[in-house]
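From the pipeline queue, job 12 of 40. The input is one protein chain; the requested action is below.

Action: predict structure.
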Amino acid sequence: MNNSSTVPVIKDLVLVGGGHSHLSVLKYFAMNPVPGLRLTLITRDLHTPYSGMLPGYIAGHYQYDEAHIDLRPLAQFAQARIYHAEVSNIDLENNNIICPDRPPIHFDIVSINIGSRPGTLHIPGADSYSMPVQPIDRFLDRWTLLSDRIVSAENDFHLAIVGGGAGGVEMALATQYRLKHLLRQQDRPDEFLHIDLYCGSDGILPTHNRQVQKRFRRILEQRDIRVHYSTRVEEVHENYLLTSEGKQPQADGVIWVTNASAPAWLAETGLDLDEKGFISVNDSLQSTSHENVFAAGDIASSIKHPRPKSGVFAVRQGPPLARNLARAIQTRPVKAFTPQTKFLGLISTGDKYAIASRGNWSLEGAWLWKIKDWIDRRFMNNFNDLPEMQQPGLPQFDRAMTDDKTLHEISAIAMRCGGCGAKVGSTVLSRVINRLQPISRDDIVIGLADPDDASVTAVPAGKLVVQSVDYFRSFIDDPYIFGQIAANHALSDIFAMGAETQSAMAIATIPYGIEEQVEDQLYQAMSGAIDVLNASNTALVGGHSSEGAELSFGLSVTGLASREQVMRKSGMQPGDVLIITKALGTGTLFAADMRLKAKGRWIDAALQSMLLSNQAAGFCMHRNGATACTDITGFGLLGHIVEMTRSSGNSVELSLDSLPIMDGALEMIEAGIFSSLQVQNVRLRRAIKDPAELRKHKHFPLLFDPQTSGGLLAAIPADKAEACLAELHELGYPASVIIGSVVDDEQSVESVTLKA
């Protein structure tokens, strides 16, 4: 989460892709921040696999976290917003990044480092029946399924590797090593496994010297990996290949490691591309057609100094790219970069053995693999082991980033007052409202589209009005996702009462910035909220916006319900069982996230849980006879259980073992990382009978963990509990589980009994 600042946002630098070059860019801006610059990373993958360690990972020499760079803490270290999304286009006329299912993302300067994919587009059947190595994360998911399939095969299995370059050779050797190891673990012979390597040229490793080629031909022959030279794969079928020689060799699995290709959407951007569809860049890594676009890594094609698509060049491009982006942002001249012509290649053979290649010489040995392992681990540590940063004093923006118009706007920001003077400008607000598309309802008499001072809604006969309000500061850097979560959190109170939502009013505080940035931030947050409101048939009818040091957002929500429909906290009965619909752990996970201690995949999973609406769950609870219901928020699970026990006069038995826990939450609790609200919530432990004996249970601290957009907790009659649980699972609440039961224990002051 970015630290708040009174320095206004002046320019937006957007990084598209979390490739090797952008790792250095993030690290550079972390160590050399530019006041007034807002840095945003848009990435499809939260964990970037390091290509140099991929063969070792496939072979089983590295664990997942050893071979992947966690982008979320790195982005936070750089004070960068991180958007988990996939780019589908770039609108260069309006300077917007286009991603499916979210608002456009504005940029002043954009850098593209999205890698490439094997060229399978023109090979019939390749997309359906082969596994491209790129993108690596998708390959790794499919590789796990393929390896399980091979290991459990009852008959001969033919695995085809298409591509005779360094990547294909390393992949063939690594997969063989790993598969034979898995087979030995099951006491199974490996004679049924056959690996074939298909090369389009008359030799393997065409970009390396003859000595290297000779060494690998020897090793492949020793490992009984058959190499098919001058054999192009022209079609891929479910169980066989069609080659350029007209043969149809058996292929029960196909891994594609051929020359790289670019994504098709680049052709729609208007950027200058080379003949293969890659972005043409000059020696400054700047697009040859658009000076506010930079590119590096496999996706870039240097006009004057072409180089192979290799991770080593992407890594070397990182520092000069970072420096040129900083210069471009500050309107300073960029500098040329000339890549090296020769580089040391360390190519692994799958078994902790490597062959070195540089120019015309070559060496081999286990000691070279140790050197490669040391180099790779040092590279990874540079981005995974982040140093502690001193808190800077109040920075000053760089005037080189501004023009006269912007300077005038900044001066106006400094003069802004509080109260109504702190409101977002009317023109900005009007433009945002005009871009939003809230739903309309017949019972909204006066709403957002009307110029009146307040909204007017109709209340149908026999209905009660149910109202709630929630508002809090952003804990993530993506305003669109934050808007969605804040809306879900606010609506949840209504759903927990068994009501349907009718209308909502938004309350937003937007960080200081020039007009364009303020509008974009407000639009992003409001768009997220509108998506959730529209999905729940809730009309946005008004609100209030202001400027402040940090992004905050909330909603005042109105719902409708019949008297019989209302679910309260006070109605649970002895014999009821307690059902919870979402896992616990958001408090400790986001506390860890602020300290750069949480893994990106943990936070992503937590966000997905927070984005899950409680609407369907609330209606399900009501259909299944819920006697009491609440949503779990800042008081934590125990706090909300105590509210239910005290208001009903009953007690509960709670099973600690049954609590659903988010990935990573236990690890962070064990590391001593808690939410700031944890201490207050722990005071309620007096409501627990004899807590001492179970105080050391690993789930015990999660009783006090505050939740944001947490699940529902309901008391359900025992005879309807299993049906309710099955329905919840079917509705998309996989974490739903029974965690306890209601008991009649009026004699006890303590209301909660714990069980392991």
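Job complete. Residues 12-116+262-341 form a domain with the FAD/NAD(P)-binding domain fold (CATH 3.50.50.60).
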